[in-house]
Amino acid sequence: MSSVVLGGIVFLCLFGAAWFGMLLRPRLPEHHLSTDSKDTIRLATAIVGTLSALALGLLIASAKSDYDDADAELRTSVGHVVLLDRVMAHYGPETQEARRLLRKLVVARLNQTWTNTDNQGSADDASVFDAGVEPVQDLLRALSPGTDGQRWLQSRALEVSGQIAEAHWMHMDAGSEGLPWPFVTILVFWLAVLFATFGLLAPRNMTVGLTLFICALSVAGAVFLIVDMANPYLGLIYIGDAPLRSALVQLGR
Predict the structure, then answer these.
(1) pLDDT of 95-132, one tens digit each?
(2) What would you report as the CA-atom Rg of the chain, rounded to the nearest whole angstrom?
(3) For 178-227, what is each residue's pLDDT tens digit?
(4) pTM value?
């Protein structure tokens, strides 16, 4: 489910709950809304409000952390890819095939992550992306260095490629995760209870309705940000492909 759709659903739930409370108010017996009753309701909803605020804060912090980690992983991987290409270039012409595969891997990640997957090369890109840098490592291990310098460069290339492989599998594992949806569902329920209480205790006038509308929109916006940042390569707030495209310019030189 997209972040925009989920944000819209949350807004409808909250604003609908507020209107439900406002419509329910005139139908309740008068003693249900006495001063003592209102005080008790406010005390009870204060607990729910505190829990909701804590949950929203935790989810926002978690989503921001996921976004920052993905951005750091991309930039670090790009640096390692360019470094690996330069090390192989210094080794000699024997690494031409490995350098070609490395460039192909970068193109595959671009197409898999940022390009429409309906393009003609998507199946080939998927297989290259799934294999990661391991075919390059196989070619590096098959090299027969003739000098101490080449032996050092081979060792260094294998070390850097290992770091790229580690980042690749971390990226693959992160892509299979996501938001804890039971947590989000319970949070939306808590918020709906709060807004229903707001509507129940508030008078029916334009100012109150507009205030509840803005509040519901604001909370829905927070949920939208959480979902959008938790999927850093999709949605409206996403990590751009500029680092990888910059790396492509450097590869093969």
Answers:
(1) 999 999 888 888 888 887 776 544 444 566 667 776 77
(2) 27
(3) 567 788 889 999 999 999 999 988 888 899 889 999 999 999 999 898 88
(4) 0.73
